[in-house]
Specification:
The protein is α+β, with helices and mostly antiparallel strands. It has one domain (about 5-80). It has two helices and seven strands; from the N terminus they run βββαββββα. It has helices at about 20-30, 80, and strands at about 5, 10-15, 15-20, 35-40, 45-50, 55-60, 75. It starts with a strand and ends in a 10-residue tail after the last helix.
């Protein structure tokens, strides 16, 4: 599996902050393609699994200096890379 990162960005346009197209893509995946599996103990990251594959996606807000952690980011992982962080058992 090739690792993928979908990074949302906020852009200043006409004196307003707007989301880039990746923000919309992240929202679409969260709504239609992913199932929530786990939340980290600190509450800042959430693990999702694709409905039709064994690919896991971690939702983070990596720009901690911004309000609410900034725009969202989704990063793909295979099961072996993510199971220990979320204390997953096979079949989750």
């Amino acid at each position: 599996m090739n690792k993928q990162i979908i990074k949302g960005t906020w852009i200043m346009k006409d004196d307003k902050i707007v989301e880039n197209s990746n923000c919309a893509l992240i929202k679409e995946k969260l709504t239609n393609a992913l199932i929530q599996v786990a939340i980290s103990t600190d509450g800042w990251t959430t693990l999702y699994k694709e409905k039709n594959s064994d690919v896991y996606w971690e939702l983070t807000y990596p720009q901690s200096e911004m309000h609410g952690g900034g725009p969202a980011q989704l990063e793909s992982f295979n099961y072996d890379k993510i199971k220990n962080k979320y204390n997953l058992k096979f079949g989750d």
